[in-house]
């Protein structure tokens, strides 16, 4: 039609809008990434351009028609589509279902996984997927839906998925809505319980790590059990303190020369010299030993 057919002032059943055909593969392949980004394609822009160009290399439209052929299985169609950059299992299955006549293909994501658990007793993995479904679970969910709906499982899946949207909630039977809400609450409770369990485990691990570290009192005890070496450096470390106790001393004996237990009664000054401690020499001068006889000066002869 003409541009007048797309008149925004028109209303009611008489209003007509211009429809534009989807661009050909050749037209998309000629596009530049920047142009698609400006149109709002975002991060998908380079994938769209690359896919169109690679599709032309393998045969273009004719190649897609071979994938649509009945003799091409859903698995073969999926593998062929996933050869294009940026195409994963779900996108490939969506293309196979909506464009390649693979009516039994079930595109699976976490929402479909939930549906399979809630409505069809699927429980191959009772823990919700963290980010992506494993290939095994993906295949098992699709098989579970196919077991119920047969060769039209893909379209049944689409109806179930649409029913989950909030816009269609009012159109659903009240008992179904109540069942969906109950399942949603159960999922939330399970998720909260799992979160608390992980938090408790993390706290326990932190506490165990803290208790394994030496306390300030233990560090002080280790430091006080060390000994200091003499000035001659015998047996000393770079810090002058060794992390073990001094050698044993026999009854009535004295510590080896140049080695005195740190903070011991025999060394109040905690200072050593090659000749022993100042404290020991002070005791000798105080009378604990006989002082040496004084030497008399000789008088000069008259």
Describe this entry's structure for a reader.
It is a single chain. The longest helix has 39 residues, at 174-212. The protein has 302 residues and is mainly alpha-helical. The termini are far apart. The strands form 2 sheets. The chain has a 3-stranded antiparallel sheet with strand order 2-1-3, with no helix packed on it. A two-stranded antiparallel sheet has the order 4-5. It has helices at 25-29, 33-38, 45-58, 61-68, 74-81, 89-99, 110-120, 135-149, 153-163, 174-212, 216-224, 278-288, and strands at 227-229, 241-242, 259-261, 272-273, 276-277. A hairpin with a 2-residue loop joins strand 4 and strand 5 (276-277). 49% of the residues lie in helices and 4% in strands.
Q: Given the structure, what is the number of helices?
A: 12
State the helicity in percent bands.
40-55%
3D shape: extended
How many distinct beta strands? 5
List strands and helices in order, with pairings.
Elements: H1 25-29, H2 33-38, H3 45-58, H4 61-68, H5 74-81, H6 89-99, H7 110-120, H8 135-149, H9 153-163, H10 174-212, H11 216-224, E1 227-229, E2 241-242, E3 259-261, E4 272-273, E5 276-277, H12 278-288
Antiparallel strand pairs: 1-2, 1-3, 4-5
Provide a compact summary of the structure.
This protein has 302 residues and is mainly alpha-helical. It has helices at 25-29, 33-38, 45-58, 61-68, 74-81, 89-99, 110-120, 135-149, 153-163, 174-212, 216-224, 278-288; strands at residues 227-229, 241-242, 259-261, 272-273, 276-277. It contains twelve helices and five strands.
């Amino acid at each position: 039609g003409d541009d007048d057919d797309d008149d925004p002032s028109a209303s009611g059943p008489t209003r007509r809008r211009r429809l534009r055909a989807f661009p050909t593969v050749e037209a998309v392949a000629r596009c530049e990434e920047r142009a698609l980004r400006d149109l709002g394609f975002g991060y998908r822009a380079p994938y769209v351009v690359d896919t169109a160009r690679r599709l032309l290399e393998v045969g273009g439209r004719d190649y897609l028609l071979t994938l649509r052929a009945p003799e091409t299985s859903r698995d073969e169609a999926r593998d062929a589509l996933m050869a294009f950059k940026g195409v994963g299992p779900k996108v490939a299955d969506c293309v196979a279902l909506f464009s390649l006549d693979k009516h039994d293909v079930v595109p699976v994501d976490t929402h479909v996984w939930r549906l399979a658990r809630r409505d069809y007793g699927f429980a191959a993995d009772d823990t919700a997927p963290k980010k992506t479904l494993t290939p095994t679970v993906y295949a098992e969910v699709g098989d579970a839906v196919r077991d119920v709906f047969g060769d039209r499982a893909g379209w049944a899946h689409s109806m179930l998925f649409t029913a989950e949207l909030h816009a269609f909630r009012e159109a659903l039977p009240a008992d179904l809505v109540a069942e969906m809400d109950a399942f949603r609450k159960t999922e939330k409770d399970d998720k909260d319980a799992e979160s608390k369990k992980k938090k408790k485990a993390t706290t326990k691990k932190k506490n165990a790590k803290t208790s394994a570290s030496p306390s300030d009192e233990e560090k002080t005890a280790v430091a006080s059990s060390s000994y200091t070496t003499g000035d001659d450096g015998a047996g000393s470390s770079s810090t002058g303190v060794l992390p073990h106790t001094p050698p044993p001393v026999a009854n009535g004996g004295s510590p080896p020369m140049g080695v005195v237990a740190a903070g011991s009664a025999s060394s109040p000054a905690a200072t050593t010299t090659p000749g022993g401690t100042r404290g020991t020499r002070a005791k000798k001068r105080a009378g604990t030993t006989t002082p040496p006889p004084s030497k008399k000066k000789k008088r000069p002869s008259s």
